[in-house]
Amino acid sequence: MSQQSAIPFKTHGEWQPTLMGGPRPLVWLIALMGIGLSLFQLYSAGIQPLGLFYQRGIHLMLVMMLCFLIFGPRPGKARGKVMAVVDAGFFIASAASGLYLVWFLDDIMARAGFWNQTDIVMAWVCTVTLLEASRRAVGAGLTIIGIVAILYAVIGSRGPLSELGEWMPGILGHRGYSFDRVGAQLFLGQEGIYGLPLGVAATFVFIFVLFGAMLEVTGAGRFFIDLAFAATGRQRGGPAKAAVLASASMGSISGSSIANVVTTGAFTIPLMKKLGYRPAQAGGIEAAASTGGQIMPPLMGAGAFLIAEYTRVPYLEIVKVSVFPALLYFATVYLLVHIIAIKQGMKGLPSSELPKVRDVMATGWFFLLPIIMLVYLLVTGVSPMRVGFYAVMGIIVIAGVNGLFVAYRQGKADNQLAASLKNAIRAGCIKLMQGLDLGARNAVSVSIACAIAGIVVAVVGLTGLGLKFSSMMIAFADGNILLAILLVIIASLILGLGLPVTASYIVLIVLVGPALTNEFGIPLLIAHLMVFWYSQDSNVTPPVALAAYAAAAIAGSKTMETSVQAWKFAKGLYLIPLFMVFNPSIILGGPLPLVLWNGFMAILALAAFAAALEGFLFTYMKAWMRIVLTGAVICVFYPDLLVEVAGAGTILVLLAINLYQHLSNERATAVASNR
Prior knowledge:
The protein is mostly helical. About 75% of the residues lie in helices and about 0% in strands.
């Protein structure tokens, strides 16, 4: 979890960025570095694209420099004089390693495989600096995994630490490599620190994170939240349903489920508690909904871009096939919220406490324009990085024009047109600087996590660990695809204890991807989507549920109780990927009747599962009905048409009985009230 301090901004008057415990020169240096990083990314995305290593080298250099300015050696503790000197050393090392790669890139490429001593020294300077940046910005877990990966590369029989290789199980043994060879692989190899994961972060991900930051500072986040409340607030459990909708709209853009919890949860959780949801329930609903934002197109955190790069499937195709599963997930959370609201006899909020759709749209309709433009450009085949550039510029122009228009009307009314326009321009410049700064800060942890993931990828390629891990997986599963998927779930949960979602996905797909596709016959795209979905579980699954912990802090509930609730509401996160594996037509397409049948079965099974989980749909269910309904859901997931039909028929009969019981109860109540 990021250890970044809260960095509040003043929205009026002078722009005064502040950092807890930091002297003013440091604060301004951080702001200038952040703005400079964002401007560099905009330049390379929309004006002058750069070569791969130039782009990635400059990006990581600026990100690490910004990291050592923002994060001190110990979270929450001010830097002393000694540590200030240490941090200055890391800051210089970040700049030196990046500049060395960019300045001497042609020479380095010319002597590929015959590195000189300076190359090796700079390789380890960059690697050690990156590991320390990871410890500060991402956490100790990912840093330890990076160190373990490096150690694994050098403890083989011919490595400098060969004596440690005796402790390795036979299947994991390898020849071992020198520190020079490993350093060159990490720093100068095609699959090292500057490999594909960092490439995705330095291009597509950053520009969309910047877009999300611009939406946030211009007020778009509040607009989407108000729109969700206006649409659902009067319904039973309205604030909880609004949380689901707001998280779906904002989560895929924010790039972080935790950021989504903090943004939307600050509004939705208190209202859910006011309506009657227990604090842990309110926090769990928000955590589950915010986690869903990471599987919702167009951004999907960083997932859509990474999956596209690894599978060579066009980005737009990834977005298209991910829409239906994401909607299924949110529909499941929405249904669970609705069932709880009915069970607990909740009512909606009164109209006087809710915004009106007409008023919300009148004051913020223009926030929809950059979203519409983004989707249109993607559909027409424009490069995602260029689309992100246009989207950022679009929100800047649209918000600026709206601010000038509002200032013009106010100035005309007050007879102070010049002063009003001047203040509007000043406020707009402040928000622009805030957005550029915030976008850079939000991207630091993602970029560093991707760079560390590159270390793991490099070691896996160098040592052949991926094939060995796949062999172990095949041996343990013994040809059983369900057991193989269970092993993926367990591995994702363990990795999620210390890794952010993006890094967890990269590490896991490198290790288990070959076995899933080659040995168990799972199509490549579905294997990647399955691993990506399961990599989200560390946000909502005890004992480490990061999004749930953030929600618990807002709700004032116990962290473990909140994470259990989040785990319950996010069950679609486990079931939907399983359905993809056994019914690939909902992702890969096929004959229309088959696609429609599988879509119907998925909706029916998830609705039945929600009913069995809560013991309620139209009215309360008896224990035997819940047991039979659960068995029927399992049958629907079974890859046999007759078994599927039997399960679907059983579900329909049981739900019809439940509806009949509900109608009978209503008639009995009506008769009793008329007497």
